[in-house]
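pasting Adenine deaminase for the record, 352 residues
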Amino acid sequence: MCQSSLHDFLQRLPKCEHHLHLEGALSTKVLFELAERNNIALPSDDEAFRSPEALEKRYQRFTSLDDFLHYYYIGMSVLIHASDFEALAWDYFQHALSDGVKHAELFFDPQAHTSRGIEYSTVLQGFQAACQRAEKELGISSLLITCYLRHLPVPESLSAFDNEQVQESYKSGAVTGIGLDSSENGFAPKMFEKLYAKARKQGLRLTAHAGEEGPASYISDSLDLLKVSRIDHGIQLAHDAELVQRIAREKTMLTVCPVSNVVLKCVKEISQVPIRTFLDAGVRFSINSDDPAYFGGYILDNYCRVHEAFDLSVKEWESIVRAGIEGSWCADGRKEELLAELEKVVKEQEGI
Ligand code: HPA
Ligand SMILES: [Zn+2]
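structre below
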């Protein structure tokens, strides 16, 4: 818990989370339990896999996005049955509830599972079961987003997109949109123009990781070539003043993940995440946890760390949460409910 006088206020804010990889919510404890239950051999030549504690320690010294991704892909190899995916997502929703999340738009990586022989329908069935339970029992609404892996050959993303089960999930509305993740540098947005054109034609929502480690030009190319309506991370935007103005003018939302940026060495400390630049320029952004089980912090930790670094006012927090609600892909009626709740929480805080 942070020491801030605003801690309770930050907890009560009706948060929308837009940048959360469900596979990144796999705790070391569950990872080891599932490895044993599903008979999955973890790498014996890496000391980090001796115990959950050793692995947790290794997570504290990631050197880059790719260093993290190495562990992320090994970790998810323990997920086999629909019930494993359901338990993983349900674990996330428990954290989301205590952190004051009201609406979550959740990424998952189909290719990382189908390449291991796990059917897409198994993955989706598990995640959907948890999402439905979260709506019913916790009052948390959610949407699912399939991410395509940019480090794999482009034709593989096209055939993954065309997969019958994947197509069915888009057509039924079980999955709302697509994203692009994994290693960034050297895998330019342009490579995925065809994939995004197909998704756009089907009326899917579009987002892409850009400007996490990669250059600001990946952000403009994601807008111009992939025609995304939001940008995941986007912190390198701060290096291009003109692009900052454009993003502000076009009201494109960035899904910023401050703790992730520090842990993966994109910045040295939270104060270097361009929160102040974005606020001053009127850039809309939400604050998110990315891969909380790997980075040691869920969404409220991100809010607290940002508050400690930037000492934001109640009005500034209100504008951040409002931008997150407005930038969500849920129905307008749900947005109105969340905006009303935001107004109530702000009024309580101001003693009105
Ligand atoms: O932060 C991330 N960046 C790129 N790919 C990812 N896959 C999971 N998390 C991430
Ligand atoms: Zn991410």
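The first strand starts at residue 15 and ends at 21.
Residues 7-350 form a domain with the TIM Barrel fold (CATH 3.20.20.140).
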